[in-house]
Fold this sequence. Notes:
The protein has 157 residues and is mostly helical. The chain has helices at 9-73, 84-100, 109-118, 147-155.
Amino acid sequence: APRESTIKPLAIATLAERAARALPKISAARVAVLRQIAKLAAVMDTRAAFLHDRAHAVVADTLFAMDEAFEQVGFGSWMPFRYPDQWLLFTGLLSRVLAANGLIGAKNAAVYRRLLEETPPVERAEAEAEPPKGIAQCHENQPVKALDELWKLIAGP
């Protein structure tokens, strides 16, 4: 069974009248607050989109630079992270590059930025432009230096 209200109908009518008088003031204030929130959200969306685009550009530039370096050495298609330590090295380096570009928060971002600016590009001698020596012990896993060797490896004994 529903409980009976202890509030008198006259008190309810008085509260309703007060609320009706305050409603236009509150509505105007709510509209002003919603407009401010919309402006702030637009600014935040623009900033987030800029940072997102910039981060993608930095990562893509880094990967393209690696791709060019591997192509110059003689790899047609490369496996950049064959071992976990290579992946860890790359993620550490990339986090410093992102921090230097102001895309992630870091205590030493200025140090990373200065390091990138002051580090000269690597200049390789022509004699070094060959695939690195493989560390594999098994013959099948040794690096292939010529297409003839690759064909023999695929054809088998």
